[in-house]
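ok trying again, last paste got cut off:
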Amino acid sequence: MTTDARVWAPSAERVALHRVRGSETARIGMAPDGEWWVVTDALEHGDRYGFLIDGVEHPLPDPRSRRLPDGVHGLSALDDAGAFAWSDAGWTGRQLAGSVLYELHIGTYSPEGTFDGAIARLDHLVDLGVDTIELLPVNGFNGTHNWGYDGVAWYAVHELYGGPEGYRRLVDACHVRGLAVVQDVVYNHLGPSGNYLPRFGPYLLQASANTWGDSVNVGHPEVRRYVLDNLAMWFDDFHVDGLRLDAVHALVDDAENHILQAMAEETDARSAHLRRPLTLIAESDLNDPELILPREAGGYGLHAQWSDDHHHAIHTAVTGEANGYYADFASEGALSKTSAGGFFHDGSYSSFREREHGHPVPSEVPTWRLITYAQNHDQIGNRAAGDRLSQSLTEDQLAVTAVLNLTSPFTPMLFMGEEWGASTPWPFFTSHPEPELGRATAEGRLAEFVKMGWDESVVPDPQDPATFASARLRWDELEDGVHARLLQLHRDLIALRRAIPELTDPRFAHTSAASSGPAPDRPPRVFRMDRGAGVVDDEDGLVSVCVAFDEPATVEIGEGSGTAARVLLATSPEARLERHDRAETSLLSLPAWSAAVMRLR
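nice, full thing came through this time. structure:
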């Protein structure tokens, strides 16, 4: 079976197809078709191919290449998406509301560092109780290992992970087990090695750079289509259930129909056709609910966004760190504000940004539209040493962190290994084959942290293979001591979240939170969050989450008429709930660094 070769090259005067078939190499002139160049029936499976532009002798890989068997600098190959024997015909999808997410990196999740290696560990996730895995980027990048955010081949799946066929095996295996798959995609920039797009056309805006390089020219109709077709590819050819859109604040688009809205429209159209929920999740630094408001309410219609503010509030409360962007969150009320309102910076002054920042989340927005977490790849990997909370906190502190994360009104996410307090770090790592690029990456990262006051000896070299090796999870520690206890706690919390409707109630009005501490500008010592319709109606159900941080605490618990409060889960055997002398009131006594979840009525 043959197929046409097509490429968009609007400024080229001539384009030829470079094709390798077995031992034969051919160069075939392509005919212009508007801004595209075409040659019919030119390719078949097994061919390697590239394009020669304006007589340049070195063939360039296809910008829409579905396979790059020899890496991002090599020739392209075809991928027959229809040849895979899917077994997920009965899969009806998984809505984000009520779900628990699990973020993982293919290269470090399993000893093999492949899609098949991840498949072998899926039953662990089913037993844990998560609903959806969120994969860090897997598209083509130069080198053997990488976080994934240096990708340059958006349509290709990294070969060393298992290529497109391995990816399909993973998604299929997830669906068979009832797990949905969200894929992290990067549309805001391209990596530093192997990006040949500018040789073909105006894919980038050199006059509009972001933190990682030139912005993507999403205002151009063909580049816009390039993005939207890639989005559709994940749903159509790989059966994924959602996409996480990296750093959407770096997308520059002045069009009336913003590229994010176009993505949401494209996704909803495919969801209607496939008859299952498809989800778009934005990572955004804007604290702007416009992203997740429905289009009929004037928003873009994305389905959810990450909320770093809630992470910062949890992190500061349990660690006491107050440097950099954590400074504003080292306050008595930060955790209660994010728990009940979503954003901390909702128009308030941000000392880190030195300006007012953010907008409030309307109370009508369902809380599940915010993805929250106690740890994620950024919040671990962008620390100087890539250290997890488990490398500095006690078991009791980690247990409190788990309760705060998994009982929130939002959609909670775990980072791989967090559920057992993995001892392994997750530092920033790269494998740039170009010595000068590798050296620049390592030196730049070291200089950044030294400038912030870190001892350079604790900053690992991202190019050192040992740095990558250190990030691999140690699966042999799951059943040992503290790791086993933390794993069981996470299982219990997720099971409780599923069993208790108040914990997945998505109405902001049905969550209230309060905290107290030694001073308004210090982290809290006691935190209480009430969940359920009982927040606004004394006759309805109410579940309360209480936390004591660095000191023991006693919390007075009011009860409903004729109902005795009871503890559903406690992180310490020393937690005590005792009836108070006054009617319908109990006292909850918590030791330092402990938490309890209680049903009040």
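cool. The first helix runs from residue 106 to 109. The mean pLDDT is 95.
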